[in-house]
Design goal:
By secondary structure, the protein is α/β, with parallel strands linked by helices. The protein is built from 9 helices and 13 strands. The chain is about 30% helix and about 20% strand.
Length: about 290
């Protein structure tokens, strides 16, 4: 007798057990050993086929983040506060670059806008075509704007500590407060805690991942971008790439560099180019074994 085959999305992975949500219900499954032999490790966000409590197939991923392991993200929401703490633009630009590299849409959510002026942040990122939402908890429409961004999408929140990531998530979806609190208590916030990701189904459709692993400053955990690929991760560079005097231009400070000239003319935000230069210098230091 042939068993039924179902399809669904992995919402949680823990201790070799996978929680799979399908139209027929929620199932606990294990993965076939063949995946390990092929170097495939199923993770939250994976679309899978399963039957008799065993995952039998994992669909091709459109993207994948290494740690915390997440697949098939539509949007990464970057939480940055205007003040307390002051925005870390290099960290923000690193996260955005990784999102661009992975084919995930970056979104910037600015918090604590009632405490300081957010004009610079808003204009810098909306000016290069990135969606920006300014959050003011006294104005419910700003929280509603966040809910609209997440509706029907598989999304994750990230941001440096203290920017208000959990506060925003809980304001947008109060019903998740207990769940995220439980995760925080179970996993802690230390460096050596288990880094598993869990997707929560949202009212109105879509999923959100909130995990301690996303609080890290080490964006290499997400993925490593080679210096030769970095310029393509800054969308505002695109109109100028290919126009430099030298074919191997690194776009740092070279004469005849169309990107450097665009920065001088105010066509590219100077802070973004400064982040690019810092990231390029870091990428130059990477050893070949780190790139594998």
């Amino acid at each position: 007798m042939v068993s039924s085959v179902y399809s669904g999305i992995i919402t949680k992975c823990l201790g070799g057990l996978y929680t799979v949500e399908s139209p027929d219900g929620i199932y606990e499954c294990r993965a076939r050993g063949v995946f390990r032999n092929k170097g495939i490790s199923p993770c939250a966000g994976d679309r899978v086929e399963f039957g008799d409590g065993v995952i039998t197939a994992v669909a091709d991923r459109k993207n994948h983040i290494i740690r915390p392991p997440l697949a098939n993200l539509d949007r990464l929401i970057f939480i940055t506060s205007v003040t307390d703490p002051a925005p870390n633009l290099l960290l923000l630009d690193k996260f955005i670059a990784v999102a661009e590299y992975k084919g995930i849409e970056p979104v910037v959510a600015i918090t604590k806008t009632d405490l300081a002026d957010s004009t610079f942040l808003r204009e810098t990122y909306s000016g290069i075509g990135i969606k920006v939402v300014e959050v003011d908890y006294s104005r419910t429409e700003t929280v509603e704007a966040v809910r609209e961004l997440l509706k029907g999408k598989v999304s994750a929140f990230t941001g440096n500590s203290g920017a208000g990531k959990s506060t925003l998530l809980n304001a947008a979806y109060p019903e998740l407060k207990l769940a995220t609190g439980e995760i925080s208590r179970k996993l802690g916030r230390g460096r050596h805690t288990t880094r598993h990701a869990e997707l929560f189904r949202l009212e109105g459709g879509g999923y959100i991942a909130d995990t301690p692993g996303f609080s890290t400053f080490d964006t290499n955990r997400y993925d490593i971008i080679r210096k030769e690929e970095l310029a393509d991760c800054f969308r505002e560079f695109a109109p100028y790439i290919g126009g430099c005097r030298f074919r191997d231009c690194a776009h740092l400070c070279e004469k005849g560099c169309t990107i450097v000239e665009a920065v001088e003319k105010g066509l590219i935000p100077r802070t973004r180019h400064e982040s690019y230069v810092a990231m390029y210098e870091e990428a130059k230091q990477l050893k070949e074994w780190e790139l594998k």
